[in-house]
Amino acid sequence: MLVKIFDPYFSTKEKSYGLGLAICYSIIQKHGGTITVDTELYKGTTFNVVIPASRFIEKAKEKEKTTLPLAKWSALVMDNEILVQKTLRFALERLGYTVTLACDGREAIKLYREALEKETPFLLVIIDLTIPGGMGGKETIARLREIDPAVTAIVSSGYSNDLVIATYRDYGFTGIIKKPFTLDELQQVIGGVQEKG
């Protein structure tokens, strides 16, 4: 069982999709790092993460200055996984966004409507397709488009064989991001939907 913990969709929890550690593993690997695990029954588990330091910090900072937007933008993220929420918040904040989080569709719709009423609309919404026990992406985007036909929404999912993923534009989504993803991949998707918008 231990050898499978980084596999996508492997989980020992009944109401989990097993993407948390898979996302961690993918992000760490794409940065040239490693993650290992040591566990002992009834005593606990330790994860060891090693990521190489960059010798090009100044160049990276210079590149960041040229890629970040000039002003703070607002984004709404809907995902039931806390780890994914935190990852998206961190990534979006690096790209210059202020971020509001929602756990399911009902909360996302409420927050979106409130922002419109305050005349501080979200410029971007990222919606998880599957929310166990709650309103998922398919119903959420339909309701958001009723409220605001011009909504800019990206669907996020770890399930690449879902019909919504294959034909996301038909459901009202502007873009798609597949889990797990890197900051660069997210930035490319956001850049693409901004150009279309």
Provide a descriptive summary of the structure in words.
The protein has 197 residues and is an alpha/beta fold. A five-stranded parallel beta sheet has the order 4-3-5-6-7, with helices on both faces. Strands 1-2 form a two-stranded antiparallel sheet. The protein has helices at 20-30, 57-67, 82-94, 105-117, 137-147, 163-166, 183-196, and strands spanning 34-40, 44-50, 73-78, 97-102, 124-128, 153-157, 175-178. It folds into two domains: 2-50, no CATH class; 57-196, Rossmann fold (3-Layer(aba) Sandwich). It starts with 19 loop residues before the first helix and ends with a helix. The protein contains seven helices and seven strands, in the order H-E-E-H-E-H-E-H-E-H-E-H-E-H.
| Main sheet record | 5 strands, parallel
Helical content class: 25-40%
CATH homology-level superfamily of the largest domain = Response regulator
**Overall outline:** globular
Order of helices and strands: HEEHEHEHEHEHEH
Which CATH architecture of the largest domain? 3-Layer(aba) Sandwich
What is the count of DSSP helices, taking H or I runs of 4+ residues?
Answer: 7
Give the number of domains: 2
SS elements, strand count: 7
CATH topology of the largest domain: Rossmann fold
Query: What are the segments in which pLDDT stays under 50 over at least 5 consecutive residues?
Result: 63-71
Radius of gyration: 18 Å
> How far apart are the termini?
46 Å
Q: Which class do the helix and strand fractions yield?
A: alpha/beta
CATH class of the largest domain: Alpha Beta
Mean pLDDT comes to 81
- Major beta sheet, strand line-up: 4-3-5-6-7
EC number: 2.7.13.3
Modified residues (4-aspartylphosphate): 128
Keywords: Kinase, Phosphoprotein, Transferase, Two-component regulatory system
Enzyme class: transferase
